């Protein structure tokens, strides 16, 4: 399978536990990916593709997904909104909550999906993670087999997406509204 990722933007947030469970359950990985190596360095999660191709040198950096890990307080019910009193009565109990670590795949292609070897197969892994996410979006333009494909996943659901080719405004030609630096009377 060969393919390319041209554009990618992600705002996905998944509980870290869900990401770990997904990989622990031995998911169906693309055939080019033999295994996945998950490393956590402080507040950064790196999910690296390990190739099954002997022609890829062990020194060639393979594609990896990069996420920041943040802690978020999750309440069992909605906390009171701003504008109301912020203090509690002595008989009122606090709303039950817990701190949950989230893996945040946020940014563009170079931020979220790094390195080019096995980049498209690793995008397919990210797409599967996006389908598990309840928060955030994944949009991408990819190519496989000479065909462009648009991907849009919002809060775990596939949404319609299309690729539209438009004429660039920079190449407008003679009627350009830009400054003509050669015949500018303010430059001597």
TrEMBL record:
This chain's protein is named: Uncharacterized protein
Q: Which organism is it from?
A: Halorubrum vacuolatum (Natronobacterium vacuolatum)
Do you know which InterPro entries this protein is assigned to? DUF7110
The record's region (Disordered) falls at: 160-188
């Amino acid at each position: 399978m060969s393919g390319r990722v041209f554009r990618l933007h992600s705002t996905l947030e998944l509980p870290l536990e869900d990401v770990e469970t997904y990989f622990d359950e031995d998911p169906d990985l693309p055939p080019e990916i033999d295994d996945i190596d998950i490393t956590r360095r402080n507040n950064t999660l790196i999910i690296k593709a390990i190739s099954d191709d002997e022609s890829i040198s062990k020194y060639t950096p393979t594609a990896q997904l990069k996420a920041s890990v943040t802690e978020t307080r999750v309440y069992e019910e909605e906390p009171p909104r701003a504008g109301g009193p912020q203090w509690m009565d002595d008989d009122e109990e606090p709303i039950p909550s817990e701190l949950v670590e989230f893996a945040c795949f946020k940014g563009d292609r170079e931020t979220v999906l790094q390195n080019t070897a096995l980049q498209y197969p690793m995008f397919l892994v990210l797409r599967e993670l996006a389908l598990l996410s309840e928060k955030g979006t994944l949009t991408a333009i990819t190519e496989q087999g000479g065909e462009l494909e648009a991907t849009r996943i919002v809060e775990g659901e596939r949404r319609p997406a299309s690729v539209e080719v438009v004429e660039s405004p920079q190449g407008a030609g003679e009627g350009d509204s830009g400054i003509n630096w050669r015949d500018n009377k303010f430059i001597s």
